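Per your request, structure below.
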């Protein structure tokens, strides 16, 4: 099984105002709570900062996502990566405590690193 790290976008890779935060390694995965509807602007940000990793977007419409639902999406994606793709995420960098709790509840093999700050808002907003 391949072992990698996982990263959230907002509050981890993106610290707001176009500033890049923690950077993933070339084999790491990005699992975002951002809706698939936000993919175009998300990819512009990542490319501008030289981040070319695979991104797993939330499949729900923008208006339907919540912090808890985004955490559930991340947990399901982590499970899918492990069980179907043979990719185990050892460390996952997450700034939202609600999403962190959802990941920890469903994925006991993942060590969630809480990136704690108040640089980015946690509510549902367009980027």
């Amino acid at each position: 099984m391949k072992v990698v790290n996982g990263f959230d976008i907002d509050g981890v890779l993106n610290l707001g105002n176009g500033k890049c935060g923690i950077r993933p390694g070339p084999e790491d995965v990005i699992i975002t709570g951002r809706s698939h509807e936000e993919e175009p602007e998300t990819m512009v940000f990542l490319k501008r900062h030289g981040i070319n990793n695979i991104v797993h977007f939330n499949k729900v419409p923008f208006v339907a996502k919540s912090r808890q639902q985004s955490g559930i999406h991340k947990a399901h994606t982590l499970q899918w990566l492990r069980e179907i793709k043979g990719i185990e995420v050892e460390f996952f960098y997450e700034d939202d405590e609600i999403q962190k709790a959802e990941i920890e509840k469903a994925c006991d093999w993942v060590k969630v690193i809480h990136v704690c700050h108040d640089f980015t808002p946690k509510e549902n907003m367009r980027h």
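The beta strands are 2-7, 29-35, 55-58, 87-94, 111-114.

Regards,
D.
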